[in-house]
Amino acid sequence: xxxxxxxxxxxxxxxxxxxxxxxYVDPECVAMWKPVRxxxxxxxxxWNVENPDAWYVRYAGGRGRLSKLIGxxxxxxxxxxxxxxxxxxxxRWFSTKSLIRRK
Length: 103
What we know:
Elements: H1 2-5, H2 9-18, E1 22-26, E2 29-36, E3 54-62, H3 65-72, E4 79-82, E5 92-95, H4 96-102
Parallel strand pairs: 3-4
Antiparallel strand pairs: 1-2, 2-3, 4-5
């Protein structure tokens, strides 16, 4: 993903570790996510949002990542969104309830 987007894993890791995001790393899964507002502009640029309504997943990779991520969410929000950087897709939002049913 980072090779294709021109982004930096190290910069994202540092940002999510220090600016109000969440990180999860184990031998089979890696994830970075943060609370945002769907109507607040580009979710990648939102930090320390007041009254968030969604979780923005910057990166999730590995086995069972969706189930793992849903289980790690520290507080409930109505939506979860992510884009597929390698496919140049914009962020798509999904109801948290529907994702919990799918997990």
